[in-house]
Amino acid sequence: MANPLTLLMPVTPGVNPAAIAAALAKYHDQIQVALTSVGTVHYARFVLLDRSSPSLQPGAGTGPFVLGVITEYDGDFNAYIQDFVAKVGAVFDALLAFTVGGKDVTPVADHISAFTDYIRKYDLSQQPGADGLYQAYPQTVQQILAAFE
Amino acid sequence: MIDYADVQGTVLRGYRVDLARHFVLSVADAARARAFIAQLVDGTGGVPRITTAARWTKKPECFVNIGFTCAGLAALGVSPAQLATFDRAFQRGATSSDSTEAVGDVGESAPANWIGGLGDGARVHVVLNVWVDDNPAVLEDVSTRLRQAWAGAMTELSAHDAQALPDNFVHFGYHDNIAQPTVEGAPPRKRQVPDDQPVVPTGEFLLGYQNAYGSQYTVQPTALSTNSSYAAFRILEQDVAGFEHFLTTSASKAGIDPELLAAKVCGRWRNGNPLELAPDAPGTTLPMSKLNDFTYVDADAAKDDTLGLRCPIGSHIRRNNPRNQAIIGTDATHHRIVRRAMPYGPAYDPARPDTIPRGLIGYFINASLTNQFEFLLGQWNLTADFVKSASGPGGPAAGNAVFNISGEDVFLGVNDPSSSSFTLAALGARGKNNTHVTGFPRLITTRGGAYCFLPSVTGLRYLAAS
């Protein structure tokens, strides 16, 4: 069974959302390779929300902005957090430079405990009211890859 | 360069002795406990000096090391803010529900059933270890001197003896103590057992050095950090009659010889020969230089065992060190542990069945209890989905690694008979020809545990003076 990550991180006021988009573009290929290497993530996406926009969609708005990382992954995130950081730590370091409190937990490789707390704090899926995850199949990423090999 | 004289010896050296006694202590008077630590560091007051990893010219008559639980450090005055910088699992302690669930200390293995006062984690402060070559009189003499020295400072909750069985065998009948990680900068092992695995960074076993993640584990205050380490102290009771019954009945159902099943669940024959090098019969015990010199994935199709056809993917040695097999997360180099355990209890004689407790007792050493000991137990021993999709030289038609493992580790798993499972892999797509051994019970029960911090000598001096 997979688990959800709904990481919604407040962006530091004054940060230009274009800079976040540029960072995501810069790391796009590295993220693909890293998540394949970790081998537990079914899907992952990054979104940017504008709290000043009624639709929350970033456009001409001025923020404050929220950076979202949303994934469905297999297994115990906390158990694998160091392995995860080993593969995508540099990406998180780059993104956390834009978020409130992010600099306090970077480089994440040196702040594993604080980074774990940071994720717990901003992961809506670990907060009261989260109602788990619907999934149409129980297989892990690796079981699916093996079945369709 | 590691200053060996600042590191507690058991972290970096195997003492190669036959007797051990592990005292479980509770601090009664912090000031006097500090004075005892000072005596231990300096070898004064009739107390043997703490053993370091420094090279000795003449083998000492005894070896002494000391570990502190989080409650123990707190009792000695380490502040909550400082303790908050320590390993998360260490802070929780071995008896916390998060820890027991992570490592499978549930049911009969739960802390409520632990011996020697170990179940009361708040009172367990110190684990003090004494090893002697083979003379019980020396062990008694050292014990007497230590007890006199800590009288009034610490209360002895219990003492647990260990005695090696001949030729490094353990109660389940296997030759043990073969594979250990090669730690960067550590003294060479006296009995080198070469393997083809990467050298593990120092920081996986000592605080203050680069670890496998390019970072360092450290704690505050600084005096407690560099050259210190952590260990899980464990008392693991082995059900020898139950294990032999499992082998006989399950091998019969699977249609194989019980000794082959014994080899399959371990990954080695009982004489120590690995299945990768001796797949069909135990043969004569290989020289030590060969016993650990193998791997699982090889470009040479004749040597490749991606599918676990020779050494099952769910075997004990392959689960606990997958070597170069593809696994989720990173790789095997990131979750190694050093084992310093010795049998306790008399050898089991099947002609005279008894219920005397027997098993293994000792330390599992690492720089992160969370990412090494607990990860190893919780992920690789208690799950079957850490293996990446991989096929061998025969392609998918011959199988895929993902389908060739099931259940939990036969030795260290919880193994509820209603769900226990061990896979004997055979050629065929998606494991269609595999045999599953099922319905077996837990064979090793946890009788005690404590998460310990093994301070450097500098750290011990700090604790003594603080």
List the helices and strands and how they pair.
The complex is a heterodimer of chains A (149) and B (466).
Chain A: E1 2-10, H1 17-38, E2 41-50, E3 65-74, H2 81-96, H3 112-122, H4 141-147
Antiparallel strand pairs in A: 1-3, 2-3
Helix pairs in contact in A: 1-2
Chain B: H1 9-12, E1 19-27, H2 30-42, E2 62-68, H3 70-75, H4 80-83, H5 88-92, H6 97-103, E3 126-132, H7 136-150, E4 154-163, E5 229-238, H8 240-254, H9 258-266, H10 288-291, H11 316-320, E6 338-344, E7 359-366, H12 369-381, E8 421-424, E9 435-438, E10 444-454, H13 457-465
Antiparallel strand pairs in B: 1-3, 1-4, 2-3, 5-7, 5-10, 6-7, 8-9
Helix pairs in contact in B: 2-13, 6-12, 8-9
| Helix-strand category of chain B | alpha+beta
Query: C-alpha Rg of chain B, in Å?
Result: 22 Å
The largest sheet of chain A is: 3 strands, antiparallel
Binned, the helix content of chain A reads: 25-40%
Rg value of chain A: 16 Å
Q: Distance N terminus to C terminus of chain B?
A: 28 Å
What oligomeric state best describes the polypeptide chains here? heterodimer
How far the N terminus sits from the C terminus of chain A, by CA atoms, comes to 21 Å
What do you see in this structure?
The complex is a heterodimer of chains A (149) and B (466). Chain A has helices at residues 17-38, 81-96, 112-122, 141-147; strands at residues 2-10, 41-50, 65-74. Chain A is α+β, with helices and mostly antiparallel strands. Chain A is globular and about 45 Å long. Chain A starts with a strand and ends with a helix. The model of chain A has no long low-confidence stretch (mean pLDDT 94). With 466 residues, chain B is α+β, with helices and mostly antiparallel strands. In chain B, the strands form 3 sheets. Chain B has a 4-stranded antiparallel sheet with strand order 2-3-1-4. In chain B, helix 6 crosses helix 12 (369-381) and helix 8 crosses helix 9 (258-266). The chains are: A alpha+beta (149), B alpha+beta (466).
